[in-house]
Amino acid sequence: MANILVVDDEHKFRTLIGEYLKADGFKFEEAQNGKEAIEIFQSSGADAFDAILLDVMMPIVDGWSVCRAIRETSDVPIIMLTARGEEYDKLFGFELGVDDYMVKPFSPKELMARLKALMRRNSKMANQERMTFGGLEVDIEARSVYVDGNLVKLTPKEYELLVYMVANKNRALTRQQILDGAWGIDFFGDDRTVDTHIKMLRDSLKPYKSFFVTVWGVGYKFEYKEG
Predict the structure, then answer these.
(1) Phi-psi region of 57 (alpha: psi -120 to 50; beta: other; left: phi over 0)
(2) What's the per-residue H, E or C state across 161-200?
(3) For an engineered disulfide with 77, which of 21, 51, 184, 200 has Cβ 3.0 to 4.6 Å away?
(4) Residue 198's pLDDT band (boundaries 50, 70, 90)?
(5) Euclidean distance between the first and final Cα of the chain, in Å?
(6) Cis ω before 108 (30° cut-off from 0)
(7) What is d(CA 102, CA 111) in angstroms, rounded to the nearest whole number?
(8) Is the dihedral of CA 74, 75, 78, 84 positive or negative?
(9) pLDDT value at position 122?
């Protein structure tokens, strides 16, 4: 049974989401502010939770700070819950390592659908094997990426985008296909998000940034020829 950490300063909201989580067979724990969330996460251990539902605007410690603290030790899926929907906020969240974003008010049923889709994608990636492209190595089981033998730190979304691109190597992909594959078919947002994350990947994997080819009028492809 998957265990979810629900972090929000509104008691009624936590209760409502808790009812939906229980109805879908999830266990869950609650935190009413960012400070409490960090304490629960650190005392429980990095592998205690299968996903985190995290509000942005909270007293004492905000959601951004909680996300930073969690990403120091864990790649656990995080869905950010916020009343703010500006593109800058979303891109900032993705750069911090947020996996998905929902703007309040939203349907609890939609939240459950996104949560389950996110966990399915993570589970599928975990069952794949190591992939090597010259000096670029992707260890799926360990969720680790190496450039010329050196470990490279990627955000969870950079990692998922990389895995999706290499799984479709030498295939031209539209931005919408990339959004559907790496973010999920329920992602609502500007396709410029793809451009931002491709740039981040190129910066992170500099010796092999040429593998990420812009296909004008279409989108991008991961281009790698054996030998």
Answers:
(1) beta
(2) HHHHHHHCCCCCEEHHHHHHHHHCCCCCCCCHHHHHHHHH
(3) 51
(4) very high
(5) 45
(6) no
(7) 8
(8) positive
(9) 65
Q: What is the pLDDT of residue 189?
A: 55
Using an 8 Å Cβ cutoff, are 41 and 48 in contact?
A: yes
How far is it, in rounded angstroms, from Cα 207 to Cα 148?
9
Beta bridge partner(s), residue 102: 81
Query: Quick check: pTM over 0.85?
Result: no
* Cα gap 167→165, rounded to integer Å: 5
Q: Which pairing describes strands 3-7 and 27-31: parallel, antiparallel, or unpaired? A: parallel
CA distances in angstroms from 169 to 65, 152, 172, 211, listed in the order given: 36, 20, 8, 9
Beta pairing class for 173-174 and 219-222: antiparallel
